[in-house]
Design a protein that fits this description.
Layout lengths: L1 H8 L7 E5 L2 H10 L5 H14 L4 H4 L5 H5 L1 H7 L14 E4 L6 E4 L1 H10 L12 H17 L9 E6 L5 E9 L3 E5 L8 H9 L4 H7 L5 E5 L1 E7 L1 H14 L9 H13 L5 E8 L4 E3 L16 E3 H4 L2 H9 L4 E3 L2 H7 L6 H6 L4 E9 L2 E10 L17 H8 L1 H18 L4 H19 L10 E14 L2 H31 L2 H19 L5 H23 L1 H12 L11 H30 L3 E7 L1 E8 L11 H26 L8 E7 L4 E6 L4 E5 L4 H9 L17 E6 L2 H16 L3 E9 L10 E7 L13 H9 L1
Parallel strand pairs: 1-7, 18-21
Antiparallel strand pairs: 2-3, 2-8, 4-5, 5-8, 6-7, 9-10, 9-14, 10-11, 12-13, 13-14, 15-17, 15-18, 15-19, 16-17, 19-20, 21-23, 22-23
Helix pairs in contact: 2-3, 3-6, 18-19, 20-21, 20-22, 20-23, 20-24, 22-23, 24-25, 25-27
């Protein structure tokens, strides 16, 4: 009656087994022991039985965990042999409900481990999902009660932190010798067809509950968990996983060894293994190059689109969800799907059961492991779960050949071409594959030059204004300060020692000072550096050793010497720091914006940092890798470039007030009205325009920022204005249209002028639009400023 009450008590629990704590099977051993000829054993057995006798529920079973506390002393007596006091300090052991974390008896060592873990620690089996727990209980019933051999043995672990917070890993071994399995009135008779349905629907919990309903069996007794610290082994496995991912050349018997590994792991002799790579950009499955690298899904094909290689359900499992696709009965699946893929291909190859396991890295599908067998149900949704424990190693091993191919392609590109932009990588990859195949065929491969024809260039630069003069001023100030400090020290030395040589040195220092204050020449910095190093420093070192009263003053001078430059480096450091901050900030803006522009239409982009930031862009059909090019995308990119240049100007002027040296910049865009070709120069490892006529474009790029307005000595590029250089009237009209649009969005003022440019060597007929830029001092502000306004704002 009490058992029935217990059944009612746990009726709401979502588990196939009603778990009753009972010591009946253990007590039966003591019933026999009580009749032993060994007086000690008999006495001990009777002592335990007499302790239990007043509490029949300890034999009949119960679910009320409060009774565990109530009878804890009696339970401890019953379990005295199972939990030996002598071994308690060593063994990590627990007694608990069947398939439950409710522990009611612990060894001394386990108690200490849990105490060290802290009061808030909750003991849970690692990675044991609720649905999996239900199916685990069902497989126990299938094996013990129904006699169907279902293999779902997986290692189970507890992760428990030690007193220092370091996570320790413990493997759990269950002893179920004291368990009884009793069917209730909810238990059903199962046929092989029912079991087949379970194998085909591993991840459908409703099917499992329909065949083996909740509370259909009573698990009466208790289990003993023996824990073993496997932290070292776990760590080694993690390290091994990392190392395998970097393995290089695969062996000739790689596939054979891999198949043997799978056969041992599944204990199935008939397993064969295949694999296929996944191209996410084209959504195609592709055969992996390598010896014996077969794919049962492709079935001798080199490439196949995913939606043709898989039916809708299979596609969803593998591609969208990155889940296992288990096919216990290929023939049945073939009939059910009316001969759809992949069942058609598998049936044609004589395969009866299969598992497709996605190879995914950070949720990105890279390929698929294919396990196949010629026996029905041998591979199924249940034993597919065993792959979870070895997938990190399998991923690395299966993808080894694909990685080698990619690494070889990258190595060829790096060796022949150095790093290339992602927008044109596809073309270099094609050539690298051709190069690689030619080598495999025994030919003498050569990497052909890459040419992109009929593409349109865009060029822009934001140059630091008068950077050479600013740097010279910084050098001049540093040299004057350093020489003045030297002069002061030498004067004190001369006044104390009155040696003529000191007076002569002071004279020479003053000559250097007069010369630098008047004008800084090209060799001035080196001349002063050599003078200080060869004549001043040795004397200062001598004085430090011989005159302690002057040593302090010399040390104060030396404290300001920069270790790397071996000279005073205050103003130059401020200048260099300012240039670095400007370049870094501007480069980060255009780099980020360029990623957005690539999504509009693919194009080649390269950016350089000098005294400012300049960039080249090339767009056209030959770069687009199959995408249809239209002049609309060129116009869009021109407008984008114009807007980004204004935004970069605004970023600079937001930064300027915080710079050590408040440097100005000037911006320029060069418009080329016709298409040209670019060729990757193998000797220089970079792209360059192709052909004599197109070389004119490169000449203009190199010289245009130093040009003057025709008939004047006014430089084309001016602070606060964006110069747009062009040669054709239609380009002028196009950019005036863009400027009017951006003016309405607050990027420009109405101060727009068109000027002619003084002829450059070999180039004439160029004109430019100069548009005054509006600035915002804060992103949150709507108020805008011209450059002059901004300068006045900064001064105020």
């Amino acid at each position: 009656m009490e058992i029935n009450n217990n059944i009612a008590e746990v009726h709401e629990e979502d588990f196939p087994l009603v778990r009753l704590v009972s010591f009946n099977k253990l007590l039966k051993h003591y019933d026999e022991m009580a009749n032993s000829d060994d007086a000690y054993l008999a006495h001990k057995a009777n002592y335990i039985l007499n302790a239990q006798a007043p509490y029949p529920e300890l034999r009949e079973g119960f679910t009320d965990i409060n009774l565990l506390e109530k009878h804890k002393d009696v339970i401890k007596t019953i379990l005295q042999d199972t939990f030996s006091v002598v071994l308690g300090e060593n063994e990590i052991k627990a007694a608990s409900f069947a398939y439950n974390n409710t522990i009611f008896q612990k060894s001394v060592r386990l108690e200490k481990i849990l105490k060290d873990a802290g009061p808030d620690f909750k003991l849970e089996i690692k990675s044991l999902a609720e649905e999996f727990s239900y199916i685990l209980g069902c497989t126990v019933i299938l094996n013990i009660h129904y006699g169907f051999k279902i293999d779902l043995k997986r290692p189970l672990f507890y992760d428990i932190p030690d007193k220092n917070g370091v996570m320790r890993h413990y493997r759990i071994l269950y002893n179920a010798d004291f368990m009884e399995l009793i069917p209730t009135d909810k238990a059903k008779e199962l046929t092989q067809e029912d079991v087949n349905a379970l194998l085909e629907n591993f991840d459908n919990i409703d099917v499992w509950k329909e065949k083996i309903p909740p509370n259909s069996f009573i698990a009466k007794g208790f289990v003993i968990s023996n824990l073993f610290d496997v932290t070292a082994e776990h760590s080694i496995s993690e390290i091994k996983s990392s190392l395998i991912s970097n393995d290089k050349a695969s062996e000739d018997n790689f596939v054979e060894n891999l198949q043997e590994t799978f056969r041992s792991f599944f204990n199935i002799r008939d397993i064969r293994v295949g694999f296929v790579s996944y191209n996410s950009s084209s959504q195609r499955f592709e055969k992996i190059l390598g010896k014996n690298m077969d794919s049962f899904m492709l079935n001798n094909k080199e490439i196949e689109c995913c939606n043709e290689a898989l039916c809708q359900n299979s596609y969803s499992k593998l591609i969208e969800e990155n889940n296992f696709l288990a096919i216990p009965d290929v023939d049945k699946a073939y009939k059910k799907s009316n001969g759809q893929a992949p069942f058609k291909s598998l049936k044609e190859q004589g395969i009866k059961s299969a598992i497709f396991a996605p190879i995914a890295n950070k949720e990105e599908l890279l390929g698929v492991v294919e396990l196949v067998s010629t026996n029905v149900n041998e591979l199924n949704g249940v034993n597919a779960q065993k792959l979870n424990d070895i997938m990190p190693f399998i991923i690395s091993a299966v993808m080894r050949s694909a990685k080698e191919e990619e690494n070889l392609i990258d190595a060829i590109i790096q060796h022949e071409c150095t790093t290339v932009h992602s927008s044109v990588y596809w073309r270099f990859k094609e050539e690298a594959k051709r190069f690689m195949v030619a080598g495999l065929e025994g030919k003498q491969p050569s990497f052909k030059e890459i040419v992109f024809k009929d593409i349109f260039p865009l060029y822009g630069q934001i140059d630091i204004k008068d950077s050479s003069q600013a740097r010279n001023n910084a050098i001049q100030k540093d040299l004057i300060v350093q020489l003045s400090k030297i002069n002061k020290v030498l004067t004190n030395i001369w006044e104390k020692n009155r040696l003529p040589i000191y007076e002569e040195l002071i004279f020479r220092v003053n000559n250097h000072l007069d010369s630098i204050e008047e004008m800084l020449y090209t060799n001035s910095e080196q001349s002063v550096f050599d003078f200080v190093k060869e004549e001043i420093t040795p004397i200062f070192n001598h004085i430090k050793k011989t005159d302690s009263s002057l040593k302090k003053e010399i040390l104060q001078y030396e404290e300001n010497i920069d270790v790397e430059t071996e000279s005073y480096y205050f103003q130059r450091k401020n200048y260099d720091e300012s240039v670095m901050q400007i370049n870094k900030k501007l480069a980060s803006v255009i780099d980020k914006k360029q990623l957005e522009a690539q999504k509009m239409f693919p194009h080649y982009f390269e950016r350089y940092k000098t005294d400012g930031v300049e960039h080249n862009i090339y767009i056209g059909d030959s770069i687009a890798d199959g995408k249809e090019f239209n002049s609309l995308y060129l116009n869009n990119l021109r407008l984008w470039q114009l807007q980004v240049m204004c935004e970069m100007e605004n970023v600079h002027y937001s930064l300027k007030k915080d710079l050590p040296v408040q440097l100005d910049v000037a911006s320029l865009i060069l418009v080329h009205n016709s298409s040209l070709s670019i060729r990757f120069r193998m000797d220089e490892k970079q792209f360059d325009v192709d052909g004599t006529y197109n070389a004119r474009y490169e000449i203009i790029k190199k010289r245009i920022d130093k040009s003057y307005i025709k008939g004047t000595r006014e430089r084309l590029t001016q602070t606060g204005k964006l110069a747009i250089v062009y040669s054709q009237k239609k380009d002028e009209l196009e950019y005036l249209r863009y400027i009017r649009f951006l003016k309405s969005k607050g990027y420009f003022t109405s101060n727009i002028e068109i000027v002619e440019i003084e002829g450059l060597q070999g180039v004439s007929g160029l004109k430019a639009i100069r548009a005054e830029i509006l600035y915002k001092t804060d992103k949150s502000e709507e108020k805008t400023y011209t450059y002059e306004d901004l300068m006045q704002e900064i001064k105020d």
